[in-house]
């Protein structure tokens, strides 16, 4: 049985997107405060599985956990509201929304590929079918990082896999969260490093290669979305000790390996 889909106007994470939410530096990205209606955001926060699947007796400090769409569908620990939310944000309508707002910043090869598969996507939408992973590997994960025993960062400055088309984080900070940190840092390459060699010299966490350009706070009902590229450096700031998990949603889409290799053969780098 197919789940009832959310209304795009009221339930999509991009329903409140406008020109003001688009930022170009240090690389193109979207930031939307209060992305969802407050009632829905509060319900998602209160029922976020990360709040109930944490072992508070002997926690593994500041480690990321995820529930993917396949785990979510059959889980009794995930509410119907969450299941509908995840279904929408891993479906055709959501992909089309993201493609529309990010298209000006995508490499031509990726934009052309998305245009080429549009008829297939429309057929899937009409039939209410999910997007097959050999067409686009799209996902919406319910994610969290575990409570923190000793101040630490869950991820240093890094680039995502080159196959990734876009990535996004929707924050659902718990009201009682007493920690500091867990914010998203956006990095900028050292100007002495030419763009054509950045993918060669890149090493995660090597500070001399980059500097922090912007910090987006980990706060309730806040969305950050960006197209992947060799310039899309990002990290998570250290979080102070706390008994509370860091709750969020992770959305992304990637090219399947075969299609990635085909496009890469046509163009030396499909992200740039």
Describe what is shown at a glance.
The chain is α+β, with helices and mostly antiparallel strands and 272 residues long.
Name a few traits of the molecule.
Jelly Rolls, seven-stranded antiparallel sheet, alpha+beta, 272 residues, three-stranded antiparallel sheet
Description:
It is a single chain. The chain is an alpha+beta fold and 272 residues long. It has one domain: Jelly Rolls (Sandwich), CATH 2.60.120. It has helices at 8-11, 38-46, 69-73, 80-88, 92-102, 108-116, 118-127, 198-201, 257-266; strands at 22-23, 29-33, 64-67, 137-145, 164-171, 184-189, 210-216, 222-227, 234-236, 246-254. The strands form two sheets. Strands 1-2-8-5-10-4-3 form a seven-stranded antiparallel β-sheet. Strands 7-6-9 form a three-stranded antiparallel β-sheet, with no helix packed on it. Strand 1 (22-23) and strand 2 (29-33) form a beta hairpin. The longest helix is centred in the middle third of the chain and has 11 residues, at 92-102. The radius of gyration is 19 Å and the shape is globular. The model is unreliable at 1-10 and 268-272 (pLDDT under 50).
Give the distance, in angstroms, between the N- and C-terminal Cα atoms: 41 Å
Tell me the Rg in angstroms.
19 Å
Outline: globular
CATH architecture classification name: Sandwich
Q: Which runs of at least 5 residues are low in confidence (pLDDT < 50)?
A: 1-10, 268-272
Mean pLDDT: 88
CATH fold description: Jelly Rolls
Number of helices: 9
What's the number of extended β-strand segments? 10
Domains, number: 1
Strand content: 15-25%
SSE pattern, N- to C-terminal: HEEHEHHHHHEEEHEEEEH
Task: Give the class from helix and strand content and strand pairing.
Answer: alpha+beta
Give the biggest beta sheet: 7 strands, antiparallel
Please give the share of residues in helix.
Answer: 25-40%
CATH C-level class:
Mainly Beta
Strand order within the widest sheet?
Answer: 1-2-8-5-10-4-3
């Amino acid at each position: 049985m197919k789940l009832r889909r959310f209304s795009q106007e009221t339930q999509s994470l991009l329903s409140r997107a406008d020109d003001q939410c688009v930022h170009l530096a240090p690389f193109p990205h979207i930031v939307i405060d209060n992305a969802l209606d407050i009632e829905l955001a509060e319900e998602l926060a209160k029922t976020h599985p990360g709040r109930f699947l944490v072992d508070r007796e002997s926690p593994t400090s500041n480690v990321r956990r995820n529930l993917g769409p396949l785990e979510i569908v059959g889980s009794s620990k995930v509410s119907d509201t969450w299941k509908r939310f995840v279904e929408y944000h891993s479906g055709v309508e959501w992909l089309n929304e993201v493609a529309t707002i990010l298209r000006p910043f995508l490499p031509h090869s990726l934009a052309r590929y998305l245009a080429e598969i549009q008829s297939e996507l429309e057929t899937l939408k009409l039939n209410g079918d999910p997007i097959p992973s050999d067409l686009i590997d799209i996902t919406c994960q319910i994610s969290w990082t575990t409570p923190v025993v000793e101040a630490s960062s869950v991820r240093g400055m890094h680039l995502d896999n080159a196959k990734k088309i876009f990535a996004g984080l929707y924050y659902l900070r718990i009201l009682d969260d007493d920690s500091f940190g867990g914010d998203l840092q956006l990095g900028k390459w050292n100007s002495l490093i030419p763009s054509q060699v950045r993918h060669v010299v890149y090493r995660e966490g090597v500070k001399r290669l980059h500097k922090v350009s912007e910090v987006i706070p980990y706060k309730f009902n806040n969305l950050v979305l960006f197209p992947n590229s060799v310039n899309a450096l990002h990290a998570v700031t250290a979080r102070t000790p706390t008994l509370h998990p860091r709750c969020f949603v992770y959305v992304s889409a990637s090219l399947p390996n075969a299609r990635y290799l085909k496009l890469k053969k046509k163009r030396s780098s499909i992200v740039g």
